[in-house]
# Entry
Amino acid sequence: MAYYLFPPDAAPPSIAPSLGRVKRGVGTPEVPVNGATTGTNGTTDGTTKARYPYDTDAELNNPTVIPQDTLGTFHFTFLIRHPRSSVPSYYRCCVPPLDKTTGFYDFMPNEMGYSELRKLFDYLRSIRQVGPRIAGQSANGEESTVDEIGTSNGATREVEVCVIDADDLLDNPASIVEAFCKSTGIEFTPDMLDWSTEADRKQAEEAFSKWKKKVKSVEEENAEWVEKYGEKGAKVIRETVDANIEDYEYLKQFAVQV
# Structure
């Protein structure tokens, strides 16, 4: 999702017109920046303009199209998954027969969004919207308590860095969910992990079992991808995986440990 908070193709950032508002005097309405109308971004006076670049200013050091004040209304946590799992999974959604179900007919490697997620992560840390503490840790080595953790919207207490790795969640769901709840100030109860009926439990197990895969060598992965998607598809998947591992491993070092 972080990919969609950034300008396309690594273009210089500027604030989305629909989110930029100019404050007016008492009794007068706010108006969008640079004369943009309400509604679809890039439309003004009935004339459709290119989506990007926006005719708006950027905020200092903000790499996104979202104003810092708006970002500040959210309590951010981060879910990551190894590219060796996420890339072929997304590629599968973009080719027959699944593309007719998903509506994704073109695989675009830049949509994986690891680079954008890392940039968003680092920006939020730089303005102290999250961190510096990492979930489950504190400056004196003791675990944080719920009372020590605030929300990002107007709170003065710290919001921890909370990164969840999908593999860790699958391997140890109870402890990871409990750690997530503790970090975000949500009361954890064991029934969060219970399914209401045996049929629901079985359906969930079947749905998530495909996510847990044995570790394979690069050669085994390549052979599997060639068999499923052909030489060309396998090549695109491998190149996309390799291009995103560095950003994944950077974020992984902040992942919740239990």
Observations:
- The two ends are 26 Å apart (CA to CA).
- Confidence is low (pLDDT under 50) at residues 27-45, 139-156.
- The beta strands are 21-22, 31-32, 43-44, 47-48, 78-80, 163-165.
- The chain has eight helices and six strands.
